[in-house]
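Not sure how to ask, but would you mind making up any protein sequence you like and the tokens describing how it folds?
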Amino acid sequence: MTNERYHYGLGRRKSAVARVRLYPGAGNVIINGKPFETVITRASSRQEMMRPLEVVERAGAFNVQVKVAGGGIEGWAGAIRHGIARALVASDENHRRPLRSVGLLTRDPRVKERKKPGLKRARKAPQFTKR
């Protein structure tokens, strides 16, 4: 699989970063050297991760090889989704319009908010006592 020509896409979500390679093939997905069913255990996350391939109707046309680091499993799934969408655009520029119309090329900007001084968490203040 490593000597073949591939299309590359970098995806990010929260603190997860996924480097995605799309090879022509039968639809196998490998994440960090393991089958994706063992890494992404939740079925809804798996389905959301493969959504860019379904939108452009190329679900069985590519083997996907992913190296992902940082964050948690849900962040991984979102980063892989973003990376697959970018790699599909790299493979064929005609995929840009359908992927953009569904919002798959936009990086999700939501990240964890920092803790502020004087508060218990990002927004939770200590309990107010009147007397």
User: Anything to note?
Assistant: The chain has one domain: 7-102. The chain is about 30% helix and 20% strand. The mean pLDDT is 94.
